[in-house]
Write a structure and sequence with these properties.
Elements lengths: L10 H4 L2 H10 L2 E5 L8 E7 L2 E7 L5 E5 L14 E3 L4 E2 L6 E2 L6 E3 L11 H4 L5 E2 L1 E4 L2 E4 L7 H19 L5 E11 L3 H8 L5 H4 L1 H4 L13 H17 L6 E2 L6 E7 L30 E7 L3 E5 L4 E10 L2 E11 L10 H26 L14 H13 L2
This protein binds FE2/S2 (inorganic) cluster (FES) and fe (ii) ion (FE2).
FE2/S2 (inorganic) cluster binds next to loops.
Length: 395
């Protein structure tokens, strides 16, 4: 069956792992936030297909991405989901050590004298993959020929929205991180993320944070008035709010819109999740708005006055994917003083669990021998955008 724009993927595309691998070798994908590795030598691991990688904040302040494999006898170098290395990355197997800035071997146990620093030794440094920063976000690419111009456009498109956060004069740190392996196709998970037609029935608690007309259908007069007032307020503060709907860069949708009346954060009670406000927001002046980014191929990130919620999904195979969520706060915020786990995490843990059920269910249905691609409804236009984009980018 051939692909038709406006319809789901043909079965042979859904189960085509090589096609997925081609995409991740050509496109910049979201790999985390700078706040996930805020201090020198902090690392964060992630999996993509059969490989394990880690981001590491170098002693020089630059964040890099390496394959999690020692060049001596292939042991994993870093353990756990996240952590902090010593001054050098030391392999737990035979204690070879690597410079986190260059990936080069700086100690090779039991090797003859003169090996470290030799030409031969140069071949056995860590394998690095391209990583670039766009404001506070980190993007990686598996291919050696990562398209720099595409990344330049991502940086440029994001900058007016992100700069008030990225250049606020304070740092960010990860408050919490959650990861889950889903028995779901990454493509199904992305389609689920690109529409809100499932929200009214499946995210009743999430919707209590927002005006329903902010998502689907016609804006009510009341919401229109609030949106207009909010845009005037953002303009006064120098905050960009113009909608980007994958038009400037085909990789990015950006929307800034008001949450429900009186909501200061993305929490079920509407109260701040962290007492230390971030970016352009100063204490006592939390904004009712949320700034949201939807990124191709794999992420959606929400900025509110007191924290950032980053969600991203990476395929492990054609029918399994890893779902990551980070809650990022002001570097000075203190757990159990300024924020608590349950209050901060609840909205997205609840919402994502609801989506996980749907993504797994869609994947099961797509395995049916009766499967055929269904049509996207008009408010599912970003599913069409994603599917068109994927078909072209993974060819
Ligand atoms: S496998 Fe890493 S030091 Fe031997
Ligand atoms: Fe959802």
């Amino acid at each position: 069956m051939t692909y038709r724009s406006g319809y789901g993927f043909p079965a042979e595309v859904i189960w085509d792992r090589q096609r997925m691998e081609r995409l991740f070798a050509r496109k910049w994908f979201f790999a985390g936030m700078r706040g996930d590795v805020p201090n020198k030598r902090d690392y964060l691991k992630f999996q993509l297909f059969d490989e394990e990688y880690f981001l590491i904040h170098g002693n020089d302040g630059v964040i890099r991405c390496y394959v999690n494999r020692c060049a001596h006898q292939s042991a994993r170098l870093v353990k756990g989901e996240a952590g902090r290395c010593a001054a050098r990355i030391v392999c737990p197997n035979h204690q070879w050590a690597f410079d986190p800035n260059s990936g080069q071997v700086v100690h090779a146990s039991f090797m003859p004298e003169g090996f470290v620093g030799s030409r031969e030794c140069d071949e056995f440094g860590l394998t690095e993959i391209p990583l670039r920063e766009a404001g506070l976000m980190l993007f990686a690419c598996l291919g050696d020929a990562a398209p720099e111009n595409e990344m330049d456009l991502i940086v440029e498109t994001i900058a007016p929205y992100m700069d008030p956060f990225a250049k606020a004069g304070h740092g960010y740190k990860q408050a919490y991180h959650h990861r889950e392996i889903l028995d779901a196709s990454w493509l199904m998970a992305m389609l689920n993320n690109r529409e809100c037609c499932h929200c009214a029935q499946n995210h009743k608690r999430l919707l209590s944070l927002f005006d329903p007309s902010s998502f689907n259908g016609e804006h009510t007069p009341d919401y229109k008035a609030r949106l207009k007032a909010a845009q005037a307020r953002w303009e006064d503060k120098g905050l960009a709010w113009q909608e980007q709907a994958f038009n400037t860069s085909e990789n990015i949708r950006i929307s800034r819109y008001p949450m429900g009346e009186g909501f200061k954060s993305q929490t079920f009670d509407g109260e701040l999740a962290s007492q230390k406000l971030i970016g352009p927001f100063v204490d006592g002046e939390a904004d009712e708005g949320t700034l949201s980014f939807w990124l191709n191929p794999n992420a959606w990130v929400h900025f509110v006055s007191d924290h950032i919620i980053a969600n991203w999904i990476l395929p492990l195979s054609e029918n399994k994917c890893a779902f990551y969520t980070s809650w990022i706060v002001h570097e000075d915020a203190v757990e159990d003083v300024d924020y608590t786990a349950e209050h901060m995490k609840e909205v997205w843990l609840v919402t994502n669990a609801e989506d996980v059920g749907l993504c797994q269910s869609m994947t099961e249905g797509a395995r049916s021998r009766y499967y055929k691609p269904g049509p996207f409804a008009p408010p599912e236009q970003f599913c069409t955008q994603f599917a068109d984009w994927y078909m072209k980018a993974s060819l």
